[in-house]
Amino acid sequence: MKFNFKFINSKIISRFSQKNICFFLTILFVTFTEVSSYPVPKLERRVMDHAGILSEATVNQLESNLKQFEAETSNQIAVYITPNLQGETIEDVSMEIFDEWKLGQKSKNNGVLLIIAPTERKMRIAVGRGLEGALTDIQAKQIIRNELRPGFQSGDMDGGVTAGVNAIMAAIRGEYAPSEDDVATTGNSSEEEVFSSGLVGGIFTLISLIVPSIGGVIFTIIGLLVLFPFLTFLFGSTFGLIVAVLLFLLVMFLKRKIGIGNGGGSDGGYFGGGGWSSGGDSWSSGSDSWSGGGGDSAGGGSSGDW
Asked: What confidence score (pLDDT) does residue 270 get?
């Protein structure tokens, strides 16, 4: 009785390869989930003070002013004060919150997020794509330096936040101009780093196509990890994660098609049916509940401390 050892070996290698793909795909999911691990709270109102640094009167006044501003201009401004950043940078946290809350109207991307972390003494003004011309990085930097920081340093959190919010609204209306000494934005160096990571990550991912077996999978994961900041810059953290996973699956599919590192298995077995949804894009500005309108941010704005 003769056994087809070649067939058995091919089947074993194919199953082993599929198990490895599932294993590394799981690692990829876990890794990227860790990158976006900040527990974003549910958006309930325009001013959310989860650190308890503002008086109730200030919160109510800011809420009223921002509601009126939104009714007049359609621009959405949210203020979020977090107890702590959970070990993440304020830039990453602001992007995760902006992506989740979808501040601004979907057709205009006219949202702004002022986030403050008193534990780390950090703050950031994150600006939606549609308002980057009205509220520039230079203006956001000046508002942090001249309006928010002085109040925080003197212990007047109510006054600092109120001055900052008023300046943000004034800038959007064209009534707040940067001074001549505010000549550099905070985004230039970070953008260069993002594009550099995109280039290096793309090269690693392309090289992974010609690296056989497990080494190719490892190269793919490394490439996508390096590429992820660039994907986040382009699509936001949520969609960036989705694109990264889709790229991983595409690379694995191409490796099987060109016959590298798969032991000669069949073309199928990696992809099942499915899809994703970005959720509803409803926009509400009622007094009892409030939600974003589907807007997003490309990472514009400025950060600071006190």
From this structure: 38
Q: What is the pTM of this model?
A: 0.58
Would you say residue 230 lies in a domain? yes
Q: What is the pLDDT of residues 170-188, one digit of tens each?
A: 999 887 765 555 444 444 4
Pairing of strands 76-81, 47-49: parallel
Q: Which residues contact 230 (CB under 8 A, 6 or more apart)?
A: 194, 195, 197, 198, 201
Pull the structure tokens for residue 199.
């280039």
- Which of 161, 185, 209 delimits the end of a domain? 185
Give pLDDT, residue 185: 42
Question: Chain centroid to CA 36: how far?
Answer: 8
Question: Which tokens sit at 57?
Answer: 């009167």
Return the DSSP state at 284.
Answer: B
Cβ–Cβ under 8 Å, residues 192 and 159: no
> Picking from 5-9, 235-239, 258-262, which range would have the lowest pLDDT averaged per residue?
5-9
**Do 134 and 226 sit in the same domain of this protein?**
no
pLDDT greater than 80 at residue 54: yes
Residues 174 and 95 occupy one common structural domain: yes
Domain presence at residue 56: yes
Q: Is residue 296 part of a domain?
A: no
**pLDDT category, 99, cuts 50, 70, 90?**
confident
Contact 18, 253 (CB under 8 A): no
Least Cα distance to 53 among 87, 78, 85, 79 occurs for 79
Q: Please say whether the beta carbons of 250 and 300 come within 8 A.
A: no
208: Cβ–Cβ under 8 A, 6 or more apart, which residues?
216, 217, 219, 220, 223, 251, 255
79 forms bridges with which residues in the sheet?
47, 114
Give the range of the structural domain holding residue 159, as residue numbers without chain letter: 47-185
pLDDT of residue 303: 92
